[in-house]
């Protein structure tokens, strides 16, 4: 696959961290691939310089403290959503179930299984999100792989029914997202505008990422009913940005700017500041490119240090979970640029890390992903952790 070379010397605003050891191999989603250095670049698009200058820049030095283990012995956890009245919902990629966790006691209550889930490779029951009107409609949205495609559905959650029978029949919101053994994307989240955003993968067919008629290799933006959202950059299309390889992390900062994490192939994983209609280069560009028609990442990592999945925003920084990298990355922001070198925490302490969710203030929820077929499960895996960060 043709890719533009990464520039040998980054811009003067770049920050470098010490390189890790490479174990080689070809990249595929969170499959093993190359290794090397970490960098962040000021080359991303974003808000005006006057807006950025007025923003407080977080400290270059952050911290992470594991407060406690919230739950353990979970099977292939993938999506995570916090209920407004207390409790966490977690999806199981391989079992196709959604379970409620009492965040105080760790007690598990299975809501039920989502019909139609086909779990193979990187596919299955993936991201989940609560309706913006959840207090009134009690709807759960889910991104899942079927025998024919990836799709987004929504289901009524009725906690008054017996355990295992609390999910209503799924209503398909959007279908036809390409599926593959690898690169199924899967992260969904409602944005500050009330629209539903979805990170998709190119299913192993890199050309789909540049094809505006395909839903693969994109960030999509749709209404809660599944229609192209008003104001989208391409007429009558759910496509919000394109040229992505496999997006699995979506997060908004305090000024409602969207950031997304993306798997690279052999060289560079990325954190991108997302611009409506922006082309992020895949498969012609992996990491920083000299071609002005592609938007460069604000930070990039060699794939043995990241293989990023979930992202969240807290305390002025993006927090990014690493699968193969087995660490939690902090990327402090000023506007839509990294204001200092990314910092790594929890390296190899809990194994593969899948999903990170803001829990309010300086708290995060973090899930491990050691039972996904690529990790080495330890006693108690997989688990949900509560973190305190700065």
UniProtKB/TrEMBL annotation:
Residues 74-374 form the Glucose/Sorbosone dehydrogenase domain. Residues 38-50 have a biased composition (Low complexity). Keywords: Signal. InterPro entries: 6-blade_b-propeller_TolB-like (IPR011042), Glc/Sorbosone_DH (IPR012938), Quinoprot_gluc/sorb_DH_b-prop (IPR011041). Coiled coil: none annotated. It holds the Pfam family GSDH. This is PQQ-dependent sugar dehydrogenase. It comes from the Bacteria. Residues 24-64, 367-390 are annotated as: Disordered. Residues 24-37 have a biased composition (Gly residues). Residues 1-19 form the signal peptide. The keyword Signal applies. The keyword Signal applies. Residues 373-390 have a biased composition (Basic and acidic residues).
């Amino acid at each position: 696959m043709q890719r533009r070379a990464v520039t040998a010397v980054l811009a003067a605003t770049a920050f470098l961290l010490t390189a890790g050891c490479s174990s080689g191999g070809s990249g595929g989603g969170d499959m093993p691939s190359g290794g090397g250095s970490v960098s962040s670049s000021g080359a991303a698009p974003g808000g005006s310089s006057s807006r950025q200058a007025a923003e407080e820049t977080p400290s270059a030095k952050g911290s992470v403290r594991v407060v406690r283990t919230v739950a353990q012995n979970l099977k292939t956890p993938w999506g995570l959503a916090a209920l407004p009245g207390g409790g966490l919902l977690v999806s199981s990629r391989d079992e196709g179930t959604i379970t409620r966790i009492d965040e105080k006691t760790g007690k598990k209550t299975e809501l039920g299984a989502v019909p139609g889930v086909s779990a193979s490779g990187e596919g299955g029951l993936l991201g989940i999100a609560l309706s913006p009107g959840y207090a009134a409609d009690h709807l759960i949205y889910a991104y899942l792989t079927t025998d024919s495609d990836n799709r987004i559905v929504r289901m009524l959650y009725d906690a008054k029914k017996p355990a295992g029978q609390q999910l209503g029949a799924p209503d398909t919101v959007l279908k036809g997202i390409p599926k593959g053994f690898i690169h199924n994307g899967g992260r969904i989240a409602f944005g500050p505008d009330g629209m539903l955003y979805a990170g998709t993968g190119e299913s192993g067919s890199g050309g789909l990422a540049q094809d505006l008629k395909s839903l693969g290799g994109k960030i999509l933006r749709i209404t809660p009913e599944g229609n192209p959202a008003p104001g989208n950059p391409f007429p009558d299309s759910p496509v919000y940005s394109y040229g992505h390889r496999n997006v699995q992390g979506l997060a908004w900062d305090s000024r409602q700017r969207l950031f997304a994490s993306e798997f690279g192939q052999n060289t560079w994983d990325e954190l991108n500041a997302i611009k409506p209609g922006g082309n992020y280069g895949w498969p012609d560009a992996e990491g920083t490119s000299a071609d002005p028609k592609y938007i460069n990442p604000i930070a990039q990592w060699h794939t043995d240090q990241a293989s990023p999945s979930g992202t969240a925003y807290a305390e002025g920084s993006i927090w990014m979970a690493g699968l193969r990298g087995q660490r939690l990355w902090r990327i402090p922001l000023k506007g839509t640029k990294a204001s200092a070198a990314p910092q790594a925490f929890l390296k190899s302490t809990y194994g593969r890390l899948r999903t990170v969710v803001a829990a309010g203030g300086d708290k995060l929820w973090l899930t491990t992903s050691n039972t996904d077929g690529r990790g080495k499960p330890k006693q108690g895996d997989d688990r949900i952790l509560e973190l305190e960060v700065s």
